[in-house]
């Protein structure tokens, strides 16, 4: 059996049904004329706030322009008339037979490192009976992908302080969504929004996200190439939120290397790249990823030392963290808060650390009681002494949180 032939006959993808529900016919806003490009026009729609009770209200916006297209639909940028704030409006065709999973998930998330759903509304499409769901989200100007590309084009590497600030906030967002039972399933630099001034990072695009339930199968054909965990490449359908940790490890490695760590156009190519670094997985590791492949003969390759994977001047703590994220065995990977507690991020916990511009670091220790109850044994590491008066724990006068 060769690797190519065996892997080309992966288990057939299972399908994920979201429960069919009778969707109560929502208020349908007419097609906003200015979506056709008339940016000076004011559009008013009846929209429901993303959080809180279902109390539809009128929302007006202007200065509309298209900022993104994808298989899902279109993303516009607009300015809210009331607050003058910029927002992003993600417009997706709504399948009337199903509840929109992205909407259900976004409505229950509330975290400073996750793009916030401000409102949502429905609009009619060009064709009869077409209904579009419009998600009105925080607008954040840049992505980690574009920031990294900017440094690459300038033949330089992203300053390590940014790698720390961005990755820490990504892990914080993952700790929160995983505590809510949600797996993002598409962590990649393009889905990490950043404000270049403040260095605040917000995780976006929950279009592939899912509430994972133990014992219920999930499709393996999610997550973008280069960032797919090996268990997904092996066609596992019983995976856990640890697939997001693998993807985050790939993002960290990419920021350190200046290029993707496991490139490859097919699952086989990616697996070959992974094996070149981690070595051939043991029988036990294969069993942990997908038991159907334990009998399979892999080319026997020794692991490449992590220090040799990266450039000579890469901080050892960064390499050590990478090695604890990019593990074959899903359960052996660090949890998001274990990652946040890692020595690589110690500089962020020093009281005098600043951004290169001289600005303060973004808020990194404003943990909610929800966050502090995930792995309480880590709280004394996560919250440096100088920040202890600012956390939710002291705000609520709660004991035993550190």
From TrEMBL:
EC number(s) reported in the record: 2.7.11.26
Family annotation (InterPro entries): GSK-3, Kinase-like_dom_sf, Prot_kinase_dom, Protein_kinase_ATP_BS, Ser/Thr_kinase_AS, STKc_GSK3
Gene Ontology molecular function: ATP binding; tau-protein kinase activity
List of residues binding ATP: 91
Pfam hit, one: Pkinase
SUPFAM superfamilies on file: Protein kinase-like (PK-like)
Family listed: Belongs to the protein kinase superfamily. CMGC Ser/Thr protein kinase family. GSK-3 subfamily.
Keyword ATP-binding: yes
Catalytic activity from the UniProt record: L-threonyl-[tau protein] + ATP = O-phospho-L-threonyl-[tau protein] + ADP + H(+); L-seryl-[tau protein] + ATP = O-phospho-L-seryl-[tau protein] + ADP + H(+)
Coiled-coil annotated spans: none
GO cellular component labels: axon; cytosol; nucleus
Gene Ontology biological process terms in this record: cell differentiation; insulin receptor signaling pathway; negative regulation of canonical Wnt signaling pathway; negative regulation of TOR signaling; positive regulation of proteasomal ubiquitin-dependent protein catabolic process; regulation of microtubule cytoskeleton organization; regulation of neuron projection development
CDD domains: STKc_GSK3
Protein name (Swiss-Prot/TrEMBL): [tau protein] kinase
Top-level EC class as recorded in UniProt: transferase
Protein kinase domain residues: 61-345
This protein's UniProt keywords: ATP-binding, Kinase, Nucleotide-binding, Serine/threonine-protein kinase, Transferase
């Amino acid at each position: 059996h060769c690797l190519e032939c065996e892997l080309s006959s992966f288990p057939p993808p299972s399908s994920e049904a979201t429960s069919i529900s009778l969707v109560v016919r929502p208020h349908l806003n007419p097609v906003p004329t200015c979506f056709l490009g008339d940016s000076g026009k004011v559009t008013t729609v009846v929209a429901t706030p993303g959080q809180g009770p279902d109390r539809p209200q009128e929302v007006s916006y202007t200065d509309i322009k298209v900022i993104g297209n994808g298989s899902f639909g279109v993303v516009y940028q607009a300015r809210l008339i009331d607050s003058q704030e910029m927002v992003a409006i993600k417009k997706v065709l709504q399948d009337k037979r199903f509840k929109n999973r992205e909407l259900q998930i976004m409505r229950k998330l509330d975290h400073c490192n996750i793009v916030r759903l401000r409102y949502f509304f429905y609009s009619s499409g060009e064709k009869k009976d077409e209904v579009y769901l419009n998600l009105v989200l925080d607008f954040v100007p840049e992505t980690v992908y574009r920031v990294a590309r900017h440094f690459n084009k300038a033949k330089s590497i992203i300053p390590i302080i940014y790698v720390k600030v961005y990755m820490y906030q990504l892990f914080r967002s993952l700790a929160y969504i995983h505590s809510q039972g949600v797996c993002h399933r598409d962590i990649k630099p393009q889905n990490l929004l950043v404000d270049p001034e403040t260095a605040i990072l917000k995780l976006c695009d929950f279009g592939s996200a899912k509430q994972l339930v133990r014992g219920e199968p999930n499709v393996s054909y999610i997550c973008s190439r280069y960032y797919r965990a090996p268990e997904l490449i092996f066609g596992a359908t019983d995976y856990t939120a640890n697939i997001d940790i693998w993807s985050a490890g790939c993002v960290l490695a990419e920021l350190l290397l200046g290029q993707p760590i496991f490139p490859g156009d097919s699952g086989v190519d990616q697996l070959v790249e992974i094996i070149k670094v981690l070595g051939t997985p043991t029988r036990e590791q294969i069993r942990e990823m997908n038991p159907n492949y334990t009998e399979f003969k892999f080319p026997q390759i020794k692991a490449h030392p992590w220090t040799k994977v990266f450039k000579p001047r890469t901080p050892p703590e960064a390499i050590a963290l990478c090695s604890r994220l990019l593990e074959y065995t899903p359960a052996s990977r660090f949890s998001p808060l274990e990652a946040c507690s890692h020595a690589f991020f110690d500089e962020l916990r020093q009281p005098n650390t600043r951004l290169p511009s001289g600005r303060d670091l973004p808020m990194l220790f404003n943990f909610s009681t929800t966050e502090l109850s995930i792995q309480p044994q880590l709280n004394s590491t996560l919250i440096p002494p100088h920040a202890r008066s600012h956390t939710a724990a002291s705000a609520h006068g709660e004991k035993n949180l550190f």
